[in-house]
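[SOLVED] Predicted holo structure with adenosine-5'-triphosphate

Edit: marking solved, answer below. Original request kept for reference. I posted the sequence and ligand SMILES and asked for the 3D complex as structure tokens.
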Amino acid sequence: MDKKILRQQMRRQLEAMSIEQRRDRSRQAIERLRQLPALNAAASVFCFVSHGAEIETHDFVRELLSAGKRVAVPWLGDVNLPRGAPGDFMRAFFIERLEDMVPGRFGIPAPLRKCDQIDAVCELAVCPGLAFSASGGRLGRGAAYYDRYLSQHPNMLTVGLCFDFQIVEQVPMDPRDVPMRHLVSERRVIDCGQR
Ligand SMILES: Nc1ncnc2c1ncn2[C@@H]1O[C@H](COP(=O)(O)OP(=O)(O)OP(=O)(O)O)[C@@H](O)[C@H]1O
Ligand SMILES: [Mg+2]
């Protein structure tokens, strides 16, 4: 299947979820993520801050911070940076509290520029996506922000966080797609056997 069609299908299913379903499934998935030994072992964690129909991560990010971990979140550049312009890539900033976030580019929550920018060496990265496969395939939104970022930080342990219906038989992968090491959904934790 082609990436574009799979993205459309997944967007449709994500938008069809009720607020309650999203809330409940997010909580269950986060509960499983919380129990992941690699997460507990990590002193520094990169995690996306959810928006729209994405799996809810706000409480989880707060929890990581109160547990004393260093927490980095994505930054996609200044609000009016055109797509494809120089500097159009994802960076990570450490935050100290979730209140350090403001609406950013594409309406995605972004850290205030006063935050400590890093060329991150977090131990683990919690990644969003539209679809995943049990072998670690990941389909994002089509900008390769995560592929580019993760390929520059190959020692980060990659964890895909998603609703269970987002785990499909097969995800079209090209050589630059960075695979996930673990998948966590509201129903299961999968060791993808990568690396
Ligand atoms: N490391 C890379 N450097 C430059 N271009 C890349 C890289 N990885 C992928 N691309 C290109 O970027 C485009 C989008 O990639 P892709 O469809 O895999 O994005 P995605 O994984 O859905 O997005 P994201 O990683 O932001 O969630 C493709 O044309 C792909 O070839
Ligand atoms: Mg990709």
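OP edit: DSSP finds five helices and 13 strands in the chain. Thanks to everyone who chimed in.
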